[in-house]
Design a protein that fits this description.
Length: 239
């Protein structure tokens, strides 16, 4: 919940002036109030606009919610689902997220599906079980062909907004586990082709080492994305 309309215009304008590494997808996810303008401001650039959330119903008595078709109608084809803050503060369950995933896929949208463990899960050694359960209950009902529309985003909740960061080796360990779990439940082709992002206090200073790990395909960037130069430095860590 950052940036009003004017601030969003400035940030996108600054981003469009940056030089980004080739072959890297760059996405921004403004609040709902700024999405329509953001789509217009990014027209002609390679920047993709995503929504931070959506409702699973097509329409109806859900005051304050946004349907998939509403996002599609303004040119937004990508949505973030299951972000750790949605799970923690708005009690979004794996079952609810499975419904949202279904709705997004039915509307031919790309889903960035977020998941990850809390600090107590990591400390107790339950982090692999927690992540597997989130994938099992939120995603593993979808068809093999639907995986073409999925991007995964691993968020170690204990490393979000805390200044703490999973070490590159910890990130790689979990990303490899996620890829192996995909292979076990689907096949190696899906496991190898799906993009798995890391989201946990990625900054220009640590991005290159994290992204250098073989199973880390990108980042879900929080506070560092609010400064265009900082965000561009993270993107360009792939060079």
């Amino acid at each position: 919940m950052n940036c009003d309309l004017a601030q969003t215009e400035t940030l996108i304008g600054d981003l469009k002036e940056q030089s980004f590494a080739t072959g890297v997808a760059v996405m921004v996810a403004p609040p709902f109030t700024n999405l329509h303008q953001a789509v217009q401001w990014t027209t002609g650039s390679d920047i993709i606009v995503a929504a931070q959330n959506m409702h699973q119903a097509t329409s109806g008595a859900f005051t304050g919610e946004i349907a998939p078709s509403m996002l599609k109608s303004i040119g937004v084809d990508t949505v973030i689902l299951g972000h750790s803050e949605r799970r923690a503060f708005f009690w979004e369950t794996n079952a609810l997220l499975a419904e949202k995933v279904n709705a997004a896929l039915e509307n031919d949208m790309t889903v960035i599906f977020c998941f990850g463990e809390e600090l107590e899960d990591r400390q107790s050694g339950a982090h692999f079980d927690v992540v597997k359960k989130q994938l099992d209950e939120g995603l593993f009902h979808i068809s093999e062909t639907s995986w073409e529309k999925l991007i995964l985003a691993y968020e170690p909740v204990w490393a979000i907004g805390t200044g703490e960061t999973a070490s590159p080796d910890q990130a790689q360990e979990m990303h490899k586990f996620i890829r192996n779990t995909l292979g076990d439940n689907y096949n190696s082709s899906i496991a190898d082709s799906v993009s798995i992002l890391y989201g946990g206090s990625v900054k220009p200073g640590n991005a290159k080492e994290i992204f250098g790990k073989p199973d880390v395909d990108g980042g879900l960037i929080g506070g560092a994305s609010l400064d265009a130069a900082s965000f561009a430095a993270i993107v360009n860590a792939f060079e």
